[in-house]
Amino acid sequence: MTLLNKIPCTIVTGFLGAGKTTLVRHAIEHNDGRRLAIIVNEFGDVGFDGSLLAECGIPGCDADAVVELPNGCICCTVADDFVPALNRLLDRPEPPEHILIETSGLALPKPLVQAFNWPAIRSRVTVDGVVAVVDGPAVASGAFADDPEALAAQRAADASVDHENPLEEVFEDQLLCADLVVMNKSDLLDEGERARVRAEVEAHLPRAVKLVETAHGALDPRVLLGLNAAAEDDLASRPSHHETEEDHDHDDFESVALPVTAAGSPEDLAARVAKAAEVAGVLRIKGFCAVADKPMRLVVQGVGRRVAHHYDRPWRPGEHRDGTLVVIGLTGFDKDAVAAALKG
Ligand SMILES: Nc1nc2c(ncn2[C@@H]2O[C@H](COP(=O)(O)OP(=O)(O)OP(=O)(O)O)[C@@H](O)[C@H]2O)c(=O)[nH]1
């Protein structure tokens, strides 16, 4: 049972590029003055999402309220990183009223939920809800299943099914743990695709879990926060492909940070990123870059073959303007080919 004095924490999970940061940002923006803190975990230690959130410029969102946990996977570094970070937030003179935890797209949520039972934090916090953000177009294109139709027919919530596709396993673990599923990027789907994605996601859910559709993570914080799930008390109904922390590693995935010299134009860089994204096994490309003669920093984001870019802020005086892109992919992806594509 949730004690009144426990601070609620929402765990935002979801595959690489599904829209977790976008959802968290929307929640900060529409938060009605509640004191929020954000913990951001990333695979690939460039601190991209943390930087986007800490520098969001939203009134009332204090950069100190954003804690970055880089270096891989929050579910594997619970003791060293997560619990101390959480305790530091709770020990502040004005502790947050609600904490949002954005996990890396490759993290499994269940070990993190289990961590809420650690004696050091158990009496202080509770998991208000696990929210799984789903990349609608990625599901529609069959990214998480070798044969989506056969798969949908095959299963309901059989967590023992063997998978050859590591993407699918991570995706499923995230759904199996969820209290709320957010089917994002609905703006990129037609009605038929939306129904298909909905059916496929529902086929993976082990319990009656609410599914909402969003575009650009625009979900009312009254829906997102306050689910009151106390998920740490309810682990049995959240099956996982990896029932122990030891069982879980990320050998299936790797990341590399590549320097990029200033681009002639955003379009030129986006074309190079799109080319790099075509290299087999590449899943996600993101980072900051310079554009010749522009005083602004360019944010570049590739999910699959879709590349988005925008200027987020002016370069600071004296700031090093060389860009870096983080590329995350299946282990063994051809980094030389990616580097060559990015060079143009
Ligand atoms: N068209 C469209 N684009 C979206 C939507 N939501 C997010 N995006 C874009 O998708 C890209 C990834 O969004 P993020 O919010 O960074 O995704 P993420 O899940 O935090 O990504 P990782 O942290 O790398 O796993 C960005 O370019 C977003 O602008 C949406 O609903 N529709």
UniProtKB/TrEMBL annotation:
It catalyses: GTP + H2O = GDP + phosphate + H(+). This is Cobalamin biosynthesis protein CobW. GO terms for biological process: cobalamin biosynthetic process. GO terms for molecular function: hydrolase activity; nucleotide binding. Pfam families: cobW, CobW_C. Residues 253-344 form the CobW C-terminal domain. InterPro entries: CobW, CobW-likC_sf, CobW-like_C, CobW/HypB/UreG_nucleotide-bd, P-loop_NTPase, Zinc-reg_GTPase_activator. Zinc chaperone that directly transfers zinc cofactor to target proteins, thereby activating them. Zinc is transferred from the CXCC motif in the GTPase domain to the zinc binding site in target proteins in a process requiring GTP hydrolysis. Signal peptide: none annotated. Keywords: Chaperone, Hydrolase, Nucleotide-binding. The lineage of its organism: Bacteria, Pseudomonadati, Pseudomonadota, Alphaproteobacteria, Hyphomicrobiales.
